[in-house]
Amino acid sequence: MLPKPHRASIVFYVSDIVRTEAFYNDVLGLGLVRQEGAEPFWLQGTLDSGLDMVFFEMEASRGNTPALVFDLEDGGIDDIVAALAEQGVTIVTPVEEAPGGWSADFQDPDGFGLGLYQAAEKPRSRK
């Protein structure tokens, strides 16, 4: 048996690494960093929770990599979903009640499912 892992990476295979870089950095503000060693470059970032996200440009079919749900620690889900829609992001499921809070689902440029979640006690709007 292998030792229990201490970290996890979520790997996405994307059709256009430059478009992916712009989406995750400019729209979601994740601060992915270009890495060398693959052609073209690949992207890597670590969320505050310690979860690593890795992106490679290669052939893949839509949906064969996992969806990722982002926890909105400070709330504001309504404002965030509205801002995503204004930037042309496909909203799959608008804000709706979820166990213990609120959630919404959207897609990145390659159609991968992403989600947002916030606890019920957090404000849905920051305005």
How would you characterize the overall build of this protein?
The protein has 127 residues and is α/β, with parallel strands linked by helices. It has two domains: 9-62, 2,3-Dihydroxybiphenyl 1,2-Dioxygenase, domain 1; 67-127, 2,3-Dihydroxybiphenyl 1,2-Dioxygenase, domain 1 (Roll). The chain is 17% helix and 36% strand. The chain has two helices and eight strands. It has helices at 17-27, 77-86, and strands at 9-14, 33-35, 42-46, 52-57, 68-71, 91-98, 101-107, 113-119. The strands form two sheets. Strands 1-4-3-2 form a four-stranded mixed beta sheet, covered by helices on one side. A four-stranded mixed beta sheet has the order 5-8-7-6. The radius of gyration is 15 Å and the shape is elongated. The mean pLDDT is 85.
What is the fold's blueprint, element by element?
Elements: E1 9-14, H1 17-27, E2 33-35, E3 42-46, E4 52-57, E5 68-71, H2 77-86, E6 91-98, E7 101-107, E8 113-119
Parallel strand pairs: 1-4, 5-8
Antiparallel strand pairs: 2-3, 3-4, 6-7, 7-8
Task: Offer a concise description of the structure.
The protein has helices at 17-27, 77-86; strands at residues 9-14, 33-35, 42-46, 52-57, 68-71, 91-98, 101-107, 113-119. The protein is of the alpha/beta class. It folds into 2 domains: 9-62, Roll (2,3-Dihydroxybiphenyl 1,2-Dioxygenase, domain 1), CATH 3.10.180.10; 67-127, 2,3-Dihydroxybiphenyl 1,2-Dioxygenase, domain 1 (Roll).
